[in-house]
Write a structure and sequence with these properties.
The protein has 220 residues and is an alpha+beta fold. It is built from four helices and eleven strands. 22% of the residues are buried.
């Protein structure tokens, strides 16, 4: 039955919660691990839940002064094809999301940004992973030398937003996190979703002080 009711925050949705009874790690890799938990369902029955734990990641939407967006073309072995994506990467242990965003943008593209805005989060594979990706916008870009990881190969492209959007219905942009970030970009560019731009130094100061991104005064 379809309910007609306002959207509620998670803390108010208690009738759907599952309670963890036991949890076991069944495989551990370089940075991912697979877990199998036993849970109690809302009706009291028991069930198992298999999922992947992930350290978390960031995605950056970098905008050049002429309005073009910086994207990457990278071969993804899991789908056996080269994919268009915004710069992104996983967080290192104890690394803040802002410092991760700075590092990934520089390492993968060579750009450093003067201003940043944290716009939101997404769960890219919510059915089987706890991965959380924080979305950042960057502008005031200054080009430099990039520093790719060993064994990492990718092209850096500067694409007009209209061209990037037109590639979506043609099936040329299929990466889920990039599609989500494009939704954010469309609404920010139109003025529908205001965001809070701050200098890199301000974000860095609060990140290094241990203040989680999103909890700063005035942050989006």
């Amino acid at each position: 039955m379809v309910e007609s009711s306002p959207l509620l925050p998670d803390r108010q949705v208690t009738h759907l919660r599952e309670r963890t009874l036991a949890s076991a790690c069944v495989w551990r890799g370089h940075f991912l691990s697979v877990h199998c938990d036993e849970v109690t369902l809302p009706d009291g029955r028991r069930a198992s839940r298999e999922y992947v734990r992930h350290p978390g990641a960031v995605l950056i939407v970098p905008a050049l002064p002429d309005g073009r967006l910086v994207v990457e073309r990278q071969y993804r072995y899991s789908v056996r094809q080269a994919v268009i994506e915004f710069p992104a990467g996983k967080r290192d242990p104890r690394e803040s999301s802002f410092r991760c965003a700075q590092r990934e943008l520089w390492e993968e593209t060579g750009y450093r940004a003067a201003q940043w805005a944290r716009v939101g989060v997404l769960h890219p594979t919510i059915g089987y992973s706890d991965e959380v990706i924080e979305i950042w916008f960057a502008r005031g870009l200054q080009a430099g030398e990039r520093r790719l990881d060993d064994g990492e190969f990718l092209d850096v492209l500067a694409v007009p937003p209209d061209e990037l959007l037109a590639a979506v219905p043609r099936g040329e942009v299929t990466d889920g996190k990039t599609l989500t970030a494009l939704l954010w970009w469309q609404n920010v560019a139109s003025g529908a979703w205001p965001i809070d731009w701050r200098d890199a130094a301000a974000w860095a100061s609060e990140a290094d002080a241990g203040i989680p991104a999103g909890e700063q005064e005035g942050a989006a």
